[in-house]
Design a protein that fits this description.
alpha+beta; elongated; three-stranded antiparallel β-sheet; 219 residues
Length: 219
């Protein structure tokens, strides 16, 4: 019985025309390109401004009250005030911006467009305890009944809605005892200024009620 020897096949080095090699090269190149795009997108940040302290309507925009933060916002970049551009000349805040919050471009207008005035109102010490710069309050007024000095007041009426608080006395400065009154600065729309001043001149009782979710000071 004779056997016929089968010649062994030699392994050939794959060439550029080998389909499997071409597919492997394409997959590697695709992975590299995709990874580069992901890294580039993650690193595409822009500098914007954030409030380093509470900002309330009427505040002027100054560099010392802002901090620069690099963020990736995609298509929403222009929603916030860019830190790689000059600050708006004569810029004034028209809405509350809390410390650390990015500064919306819409929250800054020229001084000529600002529509609020700072008014200091007297309120009870107990009411003032929870307020801080940046709080937002509704102003309720109880008109005095009878002559000056009367302790009779009418039913409360809301006079101003969503007025941001500007300045409040420091704890050590005010020494709030719960029995007296203290002055709180609030920013009131110009069309409400006359009514609020008239109420104070007539000896009305004024209460500031914090809005839901508004910034408050720990007691």
């Amino acid at each position: 019985m004779t056997t016929t020897a089968v010649p062994a096949r030699r392994l050939r080095r794959p060439g550029w025309r080998d389909g499997r090699l071409l597919i492997g090269v394409i997959l590697v190149l695709t992975s590299i390109a995709l990874g580069a795009r992901i890294v580039a997108a993650a690193d595409h940040t822009v500098p914007v401004y954030a409030a380093s302290a509470a900002l309330v309507p009427g505040d002027k925009i100054t560099a010392d009250r802002l901090t620069r933060i690099n963020v990736a916002l995609g298509a929403h970049t222009d929603t916030y005030l860019r830190a790689d551009q000059p600050l708006p000349e004569g810029g004034v805040i028209v809405r509350e911006v809390r410390p650390g919050e990015l500064l919306p471009a819409a929250a800054v207008v020229h001084a000529d467009q600002a529509s609020r005035a700072p008014i200091v109102v007297p309120i009870t010490s107990d009411s003032a305890r929870v307020l801080t710069t940046g709080s937002v309050v509704d102003v309720w007024v109880n008109e005095r009944l009878g002559r000056a000095g009367s302790t009779d007041y009418g039913s409360p009426q809301r006079l101003v809605t969503a007025a941001p608080v500007g300045k409040v006395p420091d704890r050590d400065e005010s020494r709030l005892t719960g029995t007296g009154t203290t002055g709180i600065q609030i920013h009131v729309p110009h069309h409400d200024v006359e009514k609020l001043i008239a109420a104070m001149d007539q000896g009305a009782k004024i209460t500031l009620v914090p809005a839901a979710g508004s910034a408050q000071r720990d007691r």
